[in-house]
Every structure is written in structure tokens, then in C-alpha cells.
Amino acid sequence: MTPMRSFLSELRRPGPGLAAGFLVILVVVAVLATLIAPYDPIAQSDVRLAGPSAVHWLGTDQFGRDTFSRLIVGSRIDLFVSVGATILAAVLGVLVGLVGGASRGIVGLLSMRGVEVILAFPPVVFALLIVTLFGQGEVTLIITMGILFAPAFARVVYGEVLTIRNLEYVQASQVIGSRPARILFRVMLPGVVPPVLVQASLTLASTMLLASGLSFLGLGVLPPTPSWGSMIAEGQALMMTTPLLLFVSSGVIVATILAFSVLADALERALDPRRRNRILRAVRGATNTPEPQVSGASPDIAGKELG
């Protein structure tokens, strides 16, 4: 069973299937946010703190802005930051992990020691420091979280490369005189793609959680640009009078993070070759099970023989 077929079979299960469907809808909504949103997400009005109605499906906030429109447009901002930070972290981490794992000597030692230095900082404290020094904004969040989560990719790739570099096809490439860059990116890199994909799924959930936390603290996306974290901060102040503002934004964040986590777990199961081999052996064993043998003759047969 190929990894793609194994992943598709995982998506037929209720949990991964619902998670994938939710994320597909979320991506479509984020891409078409400006077309779907019924109102301008930053336009204020005199209808403040209104409840759900046919005009405003999720009501309005303290400035009269439509909550549903802000939730839709905020999905684009949060997904853009999370995906951008994950891509940057993957690129940096894969490069460091490849070089560190393939190099023997001071280069490999220094690359992984640098990774450990970044890991020594608490993630929230490191993000607060960078955002405070360089200001708020989507680009700052992407760069900060990209650097922050790159060590996770580097450690995963480093461990895989330590195993791959001793395999026969890698040593054969070295013997025939292939250039180091070709060995890294054409020979070793395909072997580390499965764990990198799993790590990327987990990182998407972590970056969204951290970005929402920074926006909640007022250090994320610049207002009045809508984001789910800033909507939680606004809803917290009005929790006693208008709890819907808090529950809607926090519920969407929880659902998105849970969907990323479930999909990452399904992807890990699909890309695990040992698990696929166990499934194949079980299926082949079930299809090749011999017919049960009867230990003794039936009474009819025995009677005929005696007769």
C-alpha cells in the first residue's frame, strides 16, 4: 500500500475525515473571505453589541462591527500567518538538519548547538521579545515563529539523516563522486519528507495557537485588522454581557487546532512504513487463512464405511 492510498484510507475514518473537511472549508472561506463577508470587517456602526439576527448573524461588537464578517476575514489573517511561519520554519529547519546530519565535524556540531540555544528559550518569552523589539504585524509574526519552530524540524531531519547517510544508495552516490549538494538535496532530502510533513501538520497548530496568544496580548496583528486572538481579547472584556463574542472566536480556534492535530496523527499513521507493513501482513494473513480441518469423520461417513 502506497503512502497516498494509506492516507486516503485514513481519511475514510470519521475523525480524520471530519478534520480534513473542516480544514478544506476553512481554506476556501479564507481565500474567498472578501467575497463571502457580508460587511466591511472594520466598518463601525451605531448598532453596538447587538445579538444574532437576520441582519447580523453573529451580532456586533462594542464598535458596531459585524462579528461574522470579522470572523471570516480573520481566518485569512490567521491562516496566512500560520502557513507562512510553518513554511519558513520547515525551510530553515530542513537546511540546518541536512547540513548538520550529513557533516562530520565542527559544522555539524555548531549547527545543532545553535538549534539547542533557540530551544533553551521559552517560546512565548522569545516571541514577546522579538515582537516588542521589531513591532507588530503579520511579517514580524511569521519571521518570529519561523525562527522559533525551525529547531523542531532541524532535530527531526537531523535524526533521519543520521540513519539515511549510512544506507547503501547514499554511500553509492558518494563513491561515484556526486557533489555534496546533489547528495543532500537529490538523495537524502526525499527520505526525510514523510517526517517533515508530519512535523508541519503539528507546527500549523502550534503557530496558530501562539499567534492567537500574541494577538490576545496585543502584540500580534495590528488593529483594526481582525484576527481571532484579538477577537478573544475583545470578547473577554464583554464576557458577562455578550458572551457570544468570546465563545465564537475561541471555539473556532479550538476547532482549527484540533483539526490540525487529528490530521497530523492520521498523516503519521499513513506515512509510518512499519505500520503499513503490519496492516499488509494482517490482510494477507486473513485472505490466506486455510480452511479449518475436521479432526474426525462425520457420523454419516462413519456409518457408510461400517456398512
List the helices and strands and how they pair.
Layout: H1 3-11, H2 14-31, H3 33-36, H4 67-102, H5 106-120, H6 123-134, H7 138-164, H8 168-175, H9 180-188, H10 193-216, H11 228-237, H12 244-271, H13 273-287, H14 299-306
What report would you give on this structure?
This protein has 307 residues and is mainly alpha-helical. 73% of the residues lie in helices and 0% in strands. The chain is built from 14 helices and no strands. The N and C termini lie far apart (56 Å). The model is unreliable at 289-307 (pLDDT under 50).
- Bulk shape: elongated
Distance between the termini: 56 Å
Let me know the largest β-sheet. none
Using the CA coordinates, give the radius of gyration: 27 Å
Residue fraction in strands: under 5%
Uncertain runs with pLDDT below 50, 5 residues or more?
Answer: 289-307
- Could you tell me the number of beta strands? 0
Summarize, please.
The protein has helices spanning 3-11, 14-31, 33-36, 67-102, 106-120, 123-134, 138-164, 168-175, 180-188, 193-216, 228-237, 244-271, 273-287, 299-306.
Describe the structure using short key phrases:
mainly alpha; 307 residues; 73% helix; elongated
